[in-house]
Design a protein that fits this description.
This protein is an alpha/beta fold. It folds into 2 domains: 202 residues, no CATH class; 131 residues, no CATH class. The chain is built from 12 helices and 11 strands. The strands form 2 sheets. A 7-stranded mixed beta sheet has the order 1-9-8-7-6-2-3. It has a 4-stranded antiparallel beta sheet with strand order 5-4-11-10, with no helix packed on it. Strand 4 and strand 5 form a beta hairpin. Helix 6 crosses helix 12 and helix 7 crosses helix 9.
Length: 339
């Protein structure tokens, strides 16, 4: 990767926003953090959040609800989304890994890929662990993986304004055209390695997570344990909504006076009681314990790791923060490790 010295991250942001819609996570004035549209003239300081926002970048590519096609009674008409060039500015390493995971899951999906091809990803390395994060255990951070981003920002420990800017893709290099930056000096590779080591120490060894994953894949967690965990699940879909790799959806066919009918795709959750119910009435995951087991098998199953080259969990800790029943990843893995 080529490295440049960047005096202000806002300078890069303004440059990229000239020809693209640019989104950045910002406070909503009520203590929340959300993705917001930022113009090239916006002078607000870029301040990377201490932890990933409540919602990842998933919905930018996998829409919560979208039209797939129309049928007028005799012919089908596809309904591809209208896309414009966009930038997601300041993505954490874990969320970028999740985008790469979704890229594989939706590799043959034209709606997803249309949005994805129009998007430039600008990541930012983390200098400290977020609350409940364990990205280092799963090799999902804290440093951004080069293959998951187009440009990477690295804040410097010794300066409040100076940044390193790493070019990670051809699209990233092209996006810098017209922005003259000096080549970075010093051993920035060693700096990133030191940052990784520091954050990993903050996060600790996460022995319960490691032990829980091993027990799950060895089939050592009995049905009674899963049912005990299932009793805490309210079926609210909070965890699946905020999880950056969850991709369950349901087709929805609706009548239309103008078109005859149209089909939409809407987010669904494998933790809903009827998600797997078959037309015959049989439900292979009829109990809440079975559904909880299925969810965590998707997040940490070796079969999914073999298919996607990594687990379906990126160590962001969102499920812990949102679950009212206390069965986010740390809650489940603690119970499993103590079984």
């Amino acid at each position: 990767m080529q490295a440049y010295s960047l005096d202000h991250a806002e300078r890069l942001r303004a440059h990229l926003a000239l020809e693209r819609q640019l989104y950045e996570v910002r406070g909503d004035g009520q203590g929340g953090q959300h993705w917001q549209l930022v113009s090239a003239k916006d002078l607000a300081a870029f301040e990377p959040a201490a932890e990933p926002p409540p919602f990842s970048a998933k919905s930018f590519f996998f829409a919560e609800r979208e039209l797939l096609f129309r049928f007028d009674g005799g012919q089908f008409y596809s309904a591809m989304p209208e896309v414009v060039p966009q930038v997601l500015f300041g993505l954490h390493a874990c969320d970028l890994v999740a985008v790469a995971y979704q890229d594989q899951f939706f590799a043959a999906d034209p709606h997803y890929q249309a949005r994805r091809r129009a998007t430039l990803l600008v990541g930012v390395d983390c200098l400290h662990s977020c609350r409940g994060g364990f990205c280092s255990t799963l090799d999902c951070g804290p440093a951004v993986h080069a293959e998951t981003a187009d440009l990477i920002l690295l804040p410097r420990h010794d300066s409040s304004t100076d940044w390193l800017l790493l070019v990670a893709s051809a699209a990233g290099r092209s996006a810098l055209n017209g922005l003259k930056l000096p080549v970075a000096k010093g051993d920035w590779q060693a700096e990133r390695a030191a940052n990784n080591y520091y954050v990993a120490r903050e996060q600790g060894e996460q022995q319960e997570i490691v032990a829980g994953i091993a027990a799950l894949n060895r089939g050592e967690i009995d049905g009674e344990t899963w049912e005990e965990l299932g009793l805490r699940c309210l079926g609210c879909s909070g965890c699946t909504s905020v999880c950056p790799t969850c991709s369950c959806f349901a087709p929805l066919d609706l009548p239309s006076a103008q078109d005859g009918m149209h089909r939409e795709r809407v987010w669904d959750s494998c933790l809903y009681e009827g998600f797997q119910r078959e037309a015959s009435g049989h439900n292979p995951s009829a109990t809440s314990g079975q559904r909880v087991q299925r969810f965590w098998a998707h997040k940490f199953g070796d079969a999914f790791k073999a298919r996607f080259e990594r687990y379906g969990c990126v160590g962001c800790g969102r499920c812990d923060r949102v679950c009212p029943g206390g069965i986010g990843v740390h809650g489940v893995m603690h119970r499993v490790a103590q079984r």
